[in-house]
Design a protein that fits this description.
The chain has 396 residues and is an alpha/beta fold. 37% of the residues lie in helices and 19% in strands. The chain folds into 2 domains: 8-121 and 218-233, Thiolase/Chalcone synthase (Peroxisomal Thiolase, Chain A, domain 1, 3-Layer(aba) Sandwich); 133-214 and 240-394, 3-Layer(aba) Sandwich (Peroxisomal Thiolase, Chain A, domain 1). Helix 3 crosses helix 14 and helix 6 crosses helix 11.
Length: 396
């Protein structure tokens, strides 16, 4: 398997402001991010050969077809494909566009993700999104409940007092809220303290209000071409080093080999991505991370699953500021799902947008010093039944 390393590059990206966007329709958001990406790329709309559109929630007005992309962006007769893969939907659209260009089928492809979740009336994801997970675990299963179990299991496995554990998780949320204040397009832009997190209403013990991400409206997109063509179009294209997805088969629910304190699909996708990108020491080689912090415990376990922290030792890195904006590997420099927001179909591309801007040195107040490689991680489902997507991007 030769992989995708350095075969394709991003030449343009766009991202809307995330939030309660009652002022905009889904089509408005799609157009806004597309126009930004088109201007950023320097190409014309007619140069785009094909498109992939990620939209996860059927309850929105977009329906089940991607034809809405052609009508909204005025791209008649362009081949377009709708993708849906839980919370990795945006990354799935990006993967489709990248593989199509890498295969030689197209010269230029568009990947766009969009979701208008604040219009559906649910505080979290619509119940239908749990699908097979709900059938397997029963009608009373909830995402906060399942991830709370992982948090408690992690504390028990590594001998962490629950009160200490909650304080460790609180540092993650405080860090993300700080970064969100530096992101003009973020949904939540307010500093919080450790005490704010500890005193917040409980959702599913030990996870309180500030340990959980909400949902948002938003859209993001990327324009992809070959590495050779990208070099001619701009001085600072960003190259795709790896694209991997790993999905469980449900066996984690059936056997006792899984410890309940990590996400195996994240670990497996990370191993494959590092091999594809020829990275041998992630802790030293990765410059920054955007991980799927649907809950603070998910971010903590992602540190270990992606091998930037040793097993059972993430707390030391969290408490030392290793993942803070001025740390060795800043994580969620834009605020992450927790603060930038989580429109499921767009989140994967939003993560890529942040890495893209950081690698180009265009991230403003939150700019990281001299980044070389960035990683994004999406997870869909729950700890015992899920999929994970890992993307690695670089400057050379």
């Amino acid at each position: 398997m030769s992989g995708i390393k350095d075969k394709v590059a991003i030449i343009g990206m766009g991202c809307t402001k995330f939030g309660e966007r009652f002022d905009k329709s889904a089509e408005d958001l799609m157009l806004d991010c597309f126009l930004e990406a088109l201007e950023d790329s320097g190409i014309e709309k007619k140069d785009i050969d094909a498109a992939w559109m990620g939209c996860s929630v059927d309850e929105t007005s977009l329906g089940k077809s991607a034809i809405i992309l052609n009508s909204t962006l005025r791209m008649p007769y362009t081949p377009v494909t709708r993708t849906e893969n839980y919370c990795a939907t945006g990354t799935e659209a990006f993967r489709g566009a990248c593989y199509a260009v890498a295969s030689g089928a197209y010269d230029v492809a568009l990947a766009l993700g969009v979701e208008k979740l604040k219009d559906v009336g649910f505080g979290g994801l619509p119940p239908g999104q749990m699908g097979t997970v709900r059938r397997l675990l029963g009608p009373n299963s909830t995402a906060p409940g399942e991830f709370a179990q992982m948090a408690n299991t992690y504390f028990a496995k590594y001998g962490i007092d629950p009160d200490e554990g909650k304080r460790i998780l609180a540092h993650i949320s405080v860090k993300s809220h700080h970064n969100g204040t530096l992101s003009p397009k973020a949904h939540l832009r307010k500093e919080i303290t450790i005490e704010d997190v500890l005193k917040a209403p409980m959702i599913a013990s030990p996870l309180g209000l500030f340990d959980c991400c909400g949902v948002s409206d938003g859209a993001a997109c990327a324009i992809i071409t070959t590495a050779e063509k990208a070099k001619k179009l701009r001085k600072d294209p960003i190259y795709v080093k790896a694209l991997q997805i790993s999905a469980t088969s449900g066996e984690d629910l059936m056997y006792n080999t899984w410890d309940g304190a990590h996400v195996e699909s994240t670990y497996r996708a990370g191993i494959r991505a590092y091999k594809e990108a020829e990275i041998t020491d992630p802790r030293k080689e990765i410059s920054m991370m955007e991980v799927h912090d649907c809950f603070s415990i998910t971010e903590l376990t992602a540190y270990e699953d992606l091998q930037t922290s040793p097993r059972g030792r993430a707390r030391e890195d969290i408490e030392s500021g290793f993942y803070d904006l001025d740390g060795q590997i800043p994580c969620q420099p834009d605020g992450g799902l927790k603060c930038f927001g989580h429109p499921t179909g767009a989140s994967g591309l939003r993560m890529i947008y942040e890495i893209y801007k950081q690698l180009q040195g265009k991230a403003g107040e939150r700019q990281i010093k001299n980044p070389k490689l960035g990683i994004t991680h999406n997870m869909g489902g729950i700890p015992c039944y899920n999929l994970a997507a890992v993307t690695i991007l670089g400057t050379k």
